[in-house]
Amino acid sequence: MSRTYNIGVIGGDGTGPEVIREGIKVLEAAAALGGFKVEFTHYDFGGGRYLRTGEVLPESALSDLRRHSALFLGAIGHPDVKPGILEKGILLRLRFELDMYVNLRPVKLYPGVDCPLKDKGPKDIDFVVVRENTEGLYAGAGGFFKKGTPDEVAVQESVNTRKGVERCLRYAFDYCKRRNKDKKLTLCGKTNVLTYAFDLWERVFYEVAREYPDIKGDYAHVDAITMWFVKNPEWFDVIVTDNMFGDIITDLGAMIQGGMGIAAGGNINPAGTSMFEPIGGSAPKYTGKNIINPLAAICAGAMMLSHLGEETSATLIERAVMEVTGKHIKSLAAGNMGISTTEAGDLVANYVANL
Fold first, then answer.
1. Over the stretch 72-87, which tens digit does the pLDDT of each residue have?
2. Which of 60, 167, 289, 304 is deepest in the core (most CB within 10 A)?
3. How are beta strands 274-278 and 264-268 bridged, if at all?
4. Do 205 and 169 contact (CB within 8 A), yes or no?
5. 154 three-class SS
6. Is 185 helix (H, G, I), strand (E, B) or coil?
7. Which residues of the chain have pLDDT under 70?
8. Nearest-CA neighbor of 104 among 332, 310, 300?
9. How does pLDDT run across 164-201, given as a tens digit for each residue?
10. Residue-wise over 326-353: b if at least 16 C-beta within 10 A, else e?
11. Where is the Isopropylmalate dehydrogenase-like domain (predicted)?
12. 67: helix, coil or strand?
């Protein structure tokens, strides 16, 4: 085997290690068939480590993680840890310091998955959101004045740099070209109210668009996007937007594709280490019961292989997931799948080996 990928694994909290276990099972099946090798290094970053040691990420973590071909994350979130500590200390820190400046979120309805939209099926819901991942309102710029008094002021600033905006837009145009579906890229913003930030986004969008004459570029306000996701999801191919709007519309996207149990995402640094994860939370109440749905983690593994250049194996995993959703799963909800977590992973791995 000439191709070897070193994958850093952060199982995280709750059911995270359980879904990652099934994702690894499928990755190993794909590697055996695809003629490459995957090697895994496990890290215990998460709520459990924090409660034991008071440490979120050790000083050596970033240099260690940078050495990997990619990272595979289960879930971060512990009921005994105050909200924000793990999210900022692990997720945001990794995104910012490893410069994972694109959040990539496919929204695709698979066969057999219930969709909450009337008369919409797999042919109608198949688009991708490219979200800027390191700037905007999540940059942490701002602060308090007179905190805790009746005159308290809280300021949270949206930081948008020309460099940050342009590199995200270029990634989106390139991705839309590679995807080669409708070759349509939609900028999602709010130019009528957020006149500074989205003036920059819109100007750069149409400047870059001139370099991609085969891509049709258009614009829509974020409130219109949310309406059209529900009414006409078939209108979309690739959507690009800022950090906050991307955070919001991708959760709506997850719901119209059937729920968090099938939604996967990637935090992308095209020139460095990227991280792939299921979008659902740690679901601690289901920990150890073998009833959590692992398909989103398995789909995240497929995204990782695609990013690493193993397109054939990534496509094979997606086909295998479609076989399982179409033939074996009653529901994507934990405890209602009709099969266990490990059975779901076994089914996908078997389809990968035999399709």
1. 999 999 999 999 999 9
2. 304
3. antiparallel
4. yes
5. strand
6. strand
7. 1
8. 300
9. 999 999 999 999 999 999 999 999 999 999 999 999 99
10. eebbeebbbeebebebebbbbbbbebbe
11. 6-348
12. coil
Structural element, H or E, at residue 106: strand 102-108
Q: Within 10 Å of residue 319's Cβ, how many Cβ atoms?
A: 14
pLDDT at 140: 86
Please spell the DSSP secondary structure of 191-258, one letter per residue. TTT-TTHHHHHHHHHHHHHTT-TTSEEEEEEHHHHHHHHHH-GGG-SEEEE-HHHHHHHHHHHHHHTT
Say which residues have a Cβ less than 8 Å from residue 219's Cβ, sequence separation at least 6.
186, 187, 189, 191, 202, 205
Counted residue by residue, the chain has a size of 355
User: What distance in Å separates the CA atoms of residue 17 and residue 8, rounded to the nearest whole number?
Assistant: 13
| Residue in the block written with tokens 């397109």 | 311
Q: For residues 296 and 332, what is the distance between their CA atoms, to the nearest angstrom?
A: 10
> Can you give the pLDDT at residue 2?
77
Q: What percent helix, strand, coil does the chain show, rounded to 5? A: 40, 25, 35
Task: Give the number of other CB atoms < 10 A from CB of residue 238.
Answer: 21
